[in-house]
Design goal:
The chain is an all-beta fold. The protein contains no helices and eleven strands. Strands 2, 4, 5, 6, 9, 10 and 11 form a seven-stranded mixed beta sheet that branches. The protein has a four-stranded antiparallel beta sheet with strand order 1-3-8-7, with no helix packed on it. A hairpin with a 2-residue loop joins strand 9 and strand 10.
């Protein structure tokens, strides 16, 4: 069993920045890739960013490429998402995932 807890969300103005964290506990493994997804009200969950187990490979949705940066610290069992130049369309609940496990999510709201 793995537990994932996201934090760092909040209300930010257009063009602002936030840094999300996702900390894993339980039967964790530094060999697992991780990812961020987001879900806006009335919309389907969508992929945001992916990071390989050692952080050597990262992938991004086109909508966030160049603005968001995914990283991880395996010693702390934590993954991060640095979000810059935020737009109102980035407003969503951001969820992290590892293998079959999902966190509860953290709300990000960007005001125009």
């Amino acid at each position: 069993q793995v537990q994932l807890v996201e934090s760092g969300g909040g209300l930010v103005q257009f063009g602002g920045s936030l840094r999300l964290s996702c900390t894993a506990s339980g039967r964790t493994s530094s060999n697992d890739p991780m990812a961020w997804f987001r879900q806006a009200p009335g919309k389907e969950r969508e992929f945001v960013a992916f990071i390989s187990s050692n952080g050597g490979v990262t992938k991004y949705a086109d909508s966030v490429k160049g603005r968001f940066t995914i990283s991880r610290d395996n010693a702390k069992n934590t993954m991060y998402l640095q979000m810059n130049s935020l737009k109102p369309e980035d407003t969503a609940v951001y969820l992290c995932t590892l293998a079959i496990y999902w966190g509860q999510g953290t709300q990000v709201t960007v005001s125009s």
